[in-house]
Amino acid sequence: MKKKIQIALVGNPNSGKTSLFNSLTGLNQKVGNFPGVTVDKKSGSCSISDELEAELIDLPGSYSLYPRRSDEWVSYRVLMQQDETVRPDQVIVVADASNLRRNLLFVSQLIDLKCPTILALTMMDVARQKDIRIDVDALQRELGIPVVVVNPRRNTGLAELKKTIASCCKGLYRPPAFDFISNRSLAPEAVAATRALLPGLSDYAAVHHLIHHEDFRLDAPLQEQIEAIEQQHAFNHTRTQAEEIMQRYRRIGQVVQASVSEVSPLRKELLAERLDRVLLHRVWGYVILLGVLFLLFQSVFWMAEYPMTAIENGFVYLQNVLAPLLPTGWFSDLLLNGVLAGLSGILVFVPQIMILFGLIALLDETGYMARISFLTDKIMRKVGLNGKSVMPMISGFACAVPAIMSVRNIESQKERLLTILVTPLMSCSARLPVYTILIALVIPNTYLLGFLSVQGLVMMGLYLLGVVVALLVAWVARRFIRLKEKSFFILELPLYKTPRWKNVAYTMVEKAKIFVVDAGKIIMLISLLLWVLSSYGPGNGMEQVEARYSQLQEQQPHRADELEKEKQSALLQQSFAGRMGRYIEPVIAPLGYDWKIGIALITSFAAREVFVGTMATLYSVEADDSNVQTLRQKMQTAERPDGSKVYSLATGVSLMLFYLLAMQCMSTLAVVKRETRSWKWPLIQLVYMTGLAYLFALLAYQLLR
Predict the structure, then answer these.
(1) How far apart are CA 91 and CA 9, in angstroms?
(2) Residue 410 and residue 97: Cα distance in Å, rounded?
(3) Fewer beta carbons within 10 angstroms: which end of the chain, N or C?
């Protein structure tokens, strides 16, 4: 049986840590949360040797052992052995060879904690481009820990790294006997007293207990004793930290001098720097960004058209085949109009979701996504946010729930709260099926200048409108949130890289799986519930409709088809679902909506994408069995009692704006409550977003009808 160990993977942001994690673990990964916080806990299994199995924990990126953000606190607690769930046997610290001096600060701190540590050097090719040469053997001697060169993007050096991990387990590599710097000299009496109190600590761990003991899992008597040591020896946190950093950089300078050489004193300009001069230009940078977004949404429509049509036609064919084979009865009706209708409403949008998130993954893989944060920081500051708000807002294009969780990376409480308030205005993947079907219904499939899809332009316009409204809301809301804090936006721009197509494909499959499995379960459940509510009604109303139309069909056999359609519509109106829709129809009629759309608005509060499943079920229940159509065809031919089309341009635009702005997601409200620890802010969100949605939808319908 294999021996199992736990390894913490740490490093500076953009050092290649996550790429190394993906290369070592492959698909053997799982994502959860650290207990008590909403920071991702990403772990994976990796076979080290025939006798050894490792669980790798990918900890959030950190620049040093002095945490500021909540995700850095997660890494810090693990490395200080203060996390009950993660107690690593070894630490692999990943360092960017092209920025070695900066990365060595964190490395040196880990060395002094006396935990078995391996240094994995990445980006050696980039260092060579900068004319930087690193003597790995000399670096290993200076640091006193094993150093391995790896290239996770090309899967090189992984075998050597696994061999080093196995050697550490056998005790062939041990933590250095001497500290990287003289930690005891930082506060001699206080450190000695703390070590006497907690004998297992290194000098450096004792320093951190003096600084952060209030945040550690220590019993009350120990807390009081450490506090007494601080007071007795006049321990100064700030001075000690400053002195430590100065000592470390002096020692790092010596290490770099002994192990690193630059061939040319004039550093070569990298291609990335030349690209940044264009992509981050104060004018052209924004033009290019809009162009990238334009291509993104054009591609979503252009590339997804054929697979979506194939899926729709496949379900129509399946219903046509099954309808004559199945016996007449409630079970057949449930299967055809409940299960198959619900499934078609889910699977038809999988191509667009995969394409959209595949393209977003490409932007992230190449390094352009970080440039978007940098470009938009100036705009963000004018409305009370900063560049760090961009990543949660971009994440909101996928799902508002994890996006809101990620705002813990923002240090300013005011900016964090503003970001939470406006992130749900980003058009998440749940809105994509709604946009898609409504755009196909009311926007002509024409091209401007022969290549610009009007439908793609409308889709892009909806996404941009969500961003603009979010910025306006933040600009207004900042005047009501009376918190005055200074904040700083520091961003390290990663180098441009060739995308790893394996990661892009993995992202596409994962996003499709999340939509089909997670959202699909809700859609199917509500589709089946709606089938019941649409097939049965209170009292004997539906029986009276059946009796009335049976009599009419006997009297007017020449109108049999027309009467059958009228009967199905009347039955639906008498059902539980029909009565619910009729009840709220006076409120939504000014927006151009009928009672069927009203039912969809109600069910969409479980999840926005349920709109499509609701429409599929309602129109399937209402339709007669002789004419099987796709959902888009059914909605295209839907008419009001006066003969006008239900889905006119005015109604379609009104409905798109309502779904763009309304807070129709119970999960988002729940996570906002958890993050803000109050029902005040989710209720404010619900009120202001619903009010905005109603106002915009009303104006659009009244102006366009």
Answers:
(1) 6
(2) 28
(3) N
Which DSSP state fits 336?
Answer: I
What is the pLDDT at residue 698? 93
State the DSSP H helix or E strand holding residue 322, giving kind and residue range, or none if neither: helix 284-325
Q: Is 154 exposed, middle or buried (0-12, 13-18, 19+ CB in 10 A)?
A: exposed
Other Cβ atoms within 10 Å of 522 Cβ, number: 18
Nearest to 255 by CA among 160, 148, 180: 180
Q: What is the per-residue pLDDT across 118-160, written as a single tens digit (0 to 9) for each?
A: 999 998 888 887 788 899 999 999 999 999 999 887 888 999 9
DSSP 478: T
Look up residue 359 and give its amino acid. L
Task: For 68-119, give the DSSP string.
Answer: -SHHHHHHHHHHTT--SS---SEEEEEEEGGGHHHHHHHHHHHHHTTS-EEE
Under 8 Å CB-to-CB from 85, ≥6 apart: which residues?
Answer: 34, 35, 41
Pairing of strands 447-448, 452-453: antiparallel
SS3 58: strand
How many Cβ atoms are within 10 Å of 247's Cβ, its own excluded? 17
**Is residue 93 pLDDT above 90, yes or no?**
yes
pLDDT at position 62, please? 86
- Average pLDDT of span 298-314: 75
Mean pLDDT of the chain: 80
Q: Where are the beta strands (DSSP E) in 435-594?
A: 447-448, 452-453
Highest mean pLDDT among 190-204, 287-301, 493-507, 508-522: 190-204
Pairing of strands 147-149, 117-122: parallel
Work out the angle between the directed axes of helices 666-676 and 680-704 (0-180°, nearest 10): 140
Q: Residue 658 has which token pair?
A: 């309502």
User: Where do we find the tokens 């009203």?
Assistant: 598
Please state, as a whole number, how many other Cβ atoms lie within 10 Å of the Cβ of residue 667: 16
Helix, strand, coil content of the chain in percent (nearest 5): 65, 10, 25
